[in-house]
Amino acid sequence: MNDFSTHVPLLSGSLLAPLALFALVSSITPGPNNVMLAASGLNFGFRRTLPHLLGVSIGFTLMILLVGAGLGTVFQNAPVLYVVLKYAGAAYLLYLAWKIARAGELSEDGRRARPMTFLQAAAFQWVNPKAWVMAVGVAAAYIPADGFYANLLVGTVVCGVINLPSVGMWVMFGSSLRGLLRQPAAVRVFNGGMALLLVGSLYPVAADLARALAGN
Fold first, then answer.
1. Cα–Cα distance between 194 and 70 in angstroms, integer?
2. Which of 4-13, 16-25, 167-176, 196-205 is modeled with the greatest confidence?
3. Cα–Cα distances in Å, from 198 out to 55, 92, 101, 131, 193?
4. Residue pair 41/174 in contact by the 8 Å Cβ criterion
């Protein structure tokens, strides 16, 4: 029986360590997912935010695999689709920022807001600009051409293992504040701050739009 590793060289330490560092830094730094998870942790607690957390991590991990396997070439062949997705995602993020700012308040029909579901969080990755940058970056910079698909699978697993606890820390951060921010006014201030951070994360999209308008 032939050893699989003799035919497909897997990621070496020279690439695996930088990939792990990239996954850690990009997963744990502020971004749309982490801001939303922190706000959900505060407003709904860790247990109720768990489906949201798993949806982010599993959805993003699947995104790396699919983008690396060739879905990204669709946008290379039809750039307009990527542009549409980017601005649709920005509009959706603005809507989510508004929802976060109002989290914990009674909605118009009298029911309280609910945390994001697993499927909603997983689907959100496809309109999350930071997730796209991370997924494309993994495939383009850290996966060698030799044995590409096997190495893509290894790289995807590495990113998934690192991503889950990294984004989970933001849920823990938000939920840890539940005992401190007991007053509705304090919760509104925190949610407003998270909403502003989410809007701020759209700066690259706004900058691209400004450059495009300036060029016309």
1. 34
2. 167-176
3. 18, 11, 10, 14, 9
4. yes
